[in-house]
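Reading a protein record of the kind used here takes only a little practice. The record below shows the convention in full.

——
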Amino acid sequence: MSEMRHERPGVYSVYDASSVTSAGRAAKRIGVAALAVKGTANTAVTLTGYGAGVEAFGEDGADTPGMSTLLKLLFANGASTVYAVRVGAGGGLEAYQAAFAALANCDIQVVVCDSSELTIQKALKTAVETASAARGERIGVIGGSGDTAAQLVTRAEAINSERMVLVGPDMKDESGKALSGVFAAAAVAGAIACGADPAVPLNGAELYGIGGLQSVYSDNDIDLLVQGGVTPLEDVGGVVSPVRGITTRTKTGSAADSTWRELTTVLIADDVIPAVRSALRSKFARAKNTAQGRGAIRAQTIVELEKKKDAQIIEDYGEVTVTARILDPSRVPMSSSVAVYPSRKHVSPSLSGQSVTFTLTEPGQYSVEVGAEGYRNGLMIFANPLEKDAPKSDDAAYRRVENATAADMAALPADRSGIYFARGVHDIGKYIVPAHVKNIYIPGDAYVYGTLVVENNPGVRIFGRGTLSAARLPYRASHSIEATGDSNGMVVEGITIADFTHFSVRLITTNNRVEWVKTIGAWTYNCDGISVFHYSTVKNCFIWANDDSIKVYRDGITFEDIVCWQLTNGNIIQMAWNDADAKDVTVRRVDILHADWNNNQFNRGVLGFVGNRYEYENNDNYLENYLIEDVVTETPVPVVLRVSPQAGYVSTVDGLTLRNWNVRQSDNGYKNYLYCSSPDHPFRNIVFDNFVFNGTKLTAQNWEQLMNMQTQFIETPTFK
């Protein structure tokens, strides 16, 4: 290296003279972990040229290619700055993990290593994904060693990450010496780093320092590799180049997923997101959270996105567009009548052939229904918000379990406060969560058969985007998620609860929170929705139940932003069953897709109050200050109000406000009920505030006739 230090202020250049010819100056910085002849292990050294690398780490032996061989290929293919870490003696898994950790805080965007061991490459994957999740976006580039095309596909499947690029086949250096694919990966890493425009594909980029390839792929091989998550190389006229830049991400769970297959997709995201983030950080570090401040942030975001659009890095930006295609028109006939519910989201679908296209502007629970009886073939779309704090599979606080059984769960050592269900299928039975476990994570690619029961264990969190199914348990063997005793402060978030055979969520404790939970598959009676007790909240959930969906039996309960599909049993909002003393209850923004009741029995209605159904002694009910507002029926329902507690026991309602209801009832002759059981304790302070029934606002003059209302022992309601 030649460097002159100048004392006079000004702009000066520094250059590195080396024997390596560079393909161009890299826009991205590269990290490398490799065995070396010399140097301090687990310490990052900043290099700007090959000569400096040899000085710091020595030159590899003829039969032991490592650090210097990698550096030569990196700089030959455009690397400008490399952060290099020598791997410790032995070069085992722990030694490489330590080297990867030394690179964790370096400002790098591409990472390579000199190992083809799958366990070490998985460790690199973990390091890369962890850094990316912490806003240090980067790509790992790896290779095999002697792998056939089929073996490379198997390796890619084992990695399966949009942040990992697998290169093949093995290479030869310029002297004709055979080298493994990890060194070809270094050449590709240099080419990736050299690309100033992330939208420009990698295919056809000339790779320097490669004298040839040890295998020649046929067209069939190339198809297999690309579809299987491998970036194949080819030699055309002595020029080696990638056929196509591909990541190893080919699946989500067990389902094929090509969303992140193209390397350019990841590189574009890694270019756009940090650019927007940096601009906002510099301009709004101490901005006020006001409407004006948020507007300024939005405007600046648009400015940054327009820059990327002008540079042709992105084509456009905006909301999420969804296209649903009908595969079998004989089963789902296309119709001009297509609805996307909830209607309050104002989603307007368009039709083209057998496809329905629409735009989603926010997360939520959506139903796409084609034709007058579209609900029979309804497509549910659960647009979850992105996870913000998902643990990694190797998080030290979590015990990672794979294909777990009930016996496996019972045998878990009590050394971790969290349980991480790995990708795949688990069958855990009725699992009593041990007292030391506070976090249970079910990722989107995990399917867990069983139930989770929390007893006298406060502060437990069950979360993720995976599925908990009770399909393999007997009827009413267990609630899918239950909390009893002192298990206060529970959190249930994000998961799907399927095939529940009793309550989906039953938290008979205090101060709980349930958010973004989806319940599906309640095929039998007594499959209730979500029940929480004192001072608990339930938000942004989809409830598909065959008994009471929303249960508000205790003080201070709040349900907000709920989408319901009621089957043939139960009330949608159940005020009380047996003993219930509650006050200050709020239910707001409930969208009812369908209600499938086929009769007018005591427990059928949008709002219901059963009371002391089984005539238990001394089980009176006193309900005070209930606010239920912004309720919409998307399709006509058989019954709206079934507030009719059982006779013979005191059941009091004192303060019930029904505000901003827009509901429709089928023309079936069924009555609605405000029917108090006790003349000594009449229903009092009932308010209909902007209550619209079948298109007509209720008034003191029309409400009883319009709703075919059966009343008893109630004070005259107030109408607003």
About this structure: The domain at 30-262 is CATH 3.40.50.11780 (Rossmann fold). Residues 1-26 have pLDDT under 50 and may be disordered.
